[in-house]
Design goal:
homodimer, alpha/beta, 8-stranded parallel beta barrel, 15 helices, about 15% strand
């Protein structure tokens, strides 16, 4: 009922990294996708199957050194229900290999509809007398624009099933300030969203001091990371924007607490496409992903001391 | 590249209604779901197949009098990838029957990820040399909290493929004001979001004066409907909250322009579960849905004069 499970993994691996599994078909090496395209033609089904195989090998290559994966739902929906099946299978496989799984869906709605999203991604639904788990991730990213009505339905499931959420707070993109930086009585909207995260999470605080309600705060805004870390002492941060979007490890360090905890940093493309950057044999794509994950861990650990 | 197709249908049917296909398995009459549960057991697959059959009959019963359907993605995701397949099939079937289809996904992200959502729901993706359409809806609901970076990727596809989006502006729920009503220099956040909708849609204005960028404005806030209608003259409104959530037709009328256009009103449960309210034979569920759709049309048309 907090992020304790995730934080324990981070401590034992000494690595506050989450690998983003945001796979496009073009990332999958030709040798790997060929058999699927031969079998099912140039179809969404073939693409989805190839991506699952690719994800599986990435997971195998990093699961002993990276505590978590984050699946960006958009890249699975792009391949229709076949892609969504690959998302489902990837979540199960990553959990089987002991990883903590975050579904990055930025879902948002109210009341019964938000309960349906909760059941879908973090909970279960009942068919007749049987309980079925549709996706079964450990955590879900959500958007809080609709207010408490959109967040409250998630909380009972977080408590009962030891799951978590990350609420969009200050996102990493250049135009994030259009709404998020607007000042209300001198306080930016993102900070107000942060205050609500503290409120929503208040009765789910775990052993490390963090609740089940986390926040997304971009690596590209280091000053805000520092001020929000102070303002939101019980809120775990999911930090996108490392590397590709320009967020450096030195700036990210401000999002961590004095014990080197309280944040997890995402990297997607740099890990998935490391074999392209390395220009190694494409059959070594998973090995290259592992080497990039190690490089990133060392980069972060230059600035962050855990424990 | 606007909402002209939708508005034409509304005019010819004299009905500014969208039927919300937000099906829970418990809405599906026993006689209809029995064969699926017998065949596939108490599984997500059986539930998803039963729901498709149910949706199909509702669509058949209303497609000549209701211009559009809105599929709430949460209720499909709740049944895993099988449910998402039912969403896909329902979208195709509704379009085949001539209906305008809105996917209510409230999706949001930035850059390449938002492009992936766009390809998934409104566009196409390329596998080898083949173009595949994953979901193929006419319009998608989106959340604008991330700013222009989250909306811009949708616009080229709206233009090229004659699709539309509805951006969450002032939602129908009780706590929507927590963030949306906050005043920035005297202007509430929802109005600022509305101003951006006008800006984002500026070069996609169609024959009826409305752009491809619509907004979600709840039926439960009639005063805001009136003020936003004035503030956002080129923005089509999707109005949830009629009936079940307490929004009445008289109040909704303020969301329409002087020609009786510019808005479409959603009803979900009241249509889907009309047979329960009527207490008629459950085998007449689709007939009851049609009767409720007619009742709603008449209720709205008491206050709204089209043309």
């Amino acid at each position: 009922m907090s992020f304790d499970r995730l934080i324990s993994k981070i401590i034992s691996m000494k690595n506050p990294t989450v690998a983003g599994l945001d796979p496009k078909l073009e990332y999958v090496p030709d040798y790997l996708k060929k058999s699927f395209l031969d079998e099912d033609g140039e179809t969404l089904k073939a693409a989805a199957k190839a991506i699952f195989k690719y994800n599986q090998q990435i997971i195998d290559a990093i699961c002993d050194i990276v505590p978590a994966v984050k699946l960006q739902a958009a890249y699975y929906e792009m391949y229709g229900h076949h892609g969504v099946k690959t998302m489902e299978r990837t979540i199960r496989y990553a959990r089987l290999r002991g990883m903590y799984v975050i579904t990055d869906g930025k879902r948002n709605d109210i009341g019964a509809t938000m309960e349906a999203y909760t059941a879908a991604h973090l909970g279960s639904c009942t068919i007749g007398e049987s309980e079925c788990e549709p996706f079964g991730a450990d955590a879900l990213t959500v958007n809080g624009y609709l207010g408490t009505d959109g967040i409250a339905p998630l909380l009972p499931v977080c408590k009962q099933r030891d799951r978590g959420i990350f609420v969009l707070c200050k996102t990493s993109n250049p135009s994030s300030g259009e709404f998020q930086d607007l000042l209300i009585d001198g306080v930016p909207l993102y900070a107000r969203m942060g205050d609500k995260c503290e409120e929503w999470g208040a009765d789910t605080i775990g052993a490390y001091g963090y609740s089940a309600v986390g926040a997304v705060v971009g690596a590209t805004y280091p000053e805000q990371l520092v001020s929000l870390r102070e303002r939101m002492p019980h809120t775990m941060f999911l930090v996108p924007g490392y590397g590709a979007q320009g967020g450096g490890a030195a700036g990210i360090a401000g999002g961590f607490d004095k014990n080197g905890l309280g944040a997890i940093v995402n990297s997607s493309r740099a890990i998935l496409c490391a074999y392209k950057k390395e220009q190694c044999d494409e059959r070594d794509f998973a090995g290259a992903a592992r080497r990039e994950a190690i490089r990133m861990r060392e980069d972060l650990m230059t600035y962050i001391k855990i424990g």
